[in-house]
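Continuing the series of single-chain predictions for the mutant panel. This is the parent chain; the variants come on the following pages.
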Amino acid sequence: MNQPQKPFVDHTALKFNQAAIITLNILAFLLDRPWLVTFVALVMLVGTLHPPASLFKQIYARILKPAGLLKPDPQHDEPQPHLFAQGLGAIFLILATVAFLAGVPLLGWILTAVVVLLAAVNLFLGFCLGCFIFYQLARRGIRLQLPQWS
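Parent structure:
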């Protein structure tokens, strides 16, 4: 019996998303601009809840790909684990924002660094901890329904 083929996910879009998250959060740290962490958190949250509105993916799809600056890399893959990972990153950055607002900037930067580190591991080493957690939850019968993207 043949299993249905997975949908396509453009891995270049994922990598650009990760690179944007890393770059903007490092810039936020270097310039001591916690509001930039909040901006990235909101972009990630919106992109998780409504993937067509994902700012970084829109920049890729509407500007970088048509200009030929980045080439698509469509692969058979499920989008939900990647959305879950992005949602976890958004939660960490929201918690970082709360820490900044509560006057605990060290905690805010540590939480931001966790997101940067995990996005970098995914971008450079190809291991997505959030995806791993998603699959582990599914193995234990916890199936999360997340939006699709095309």
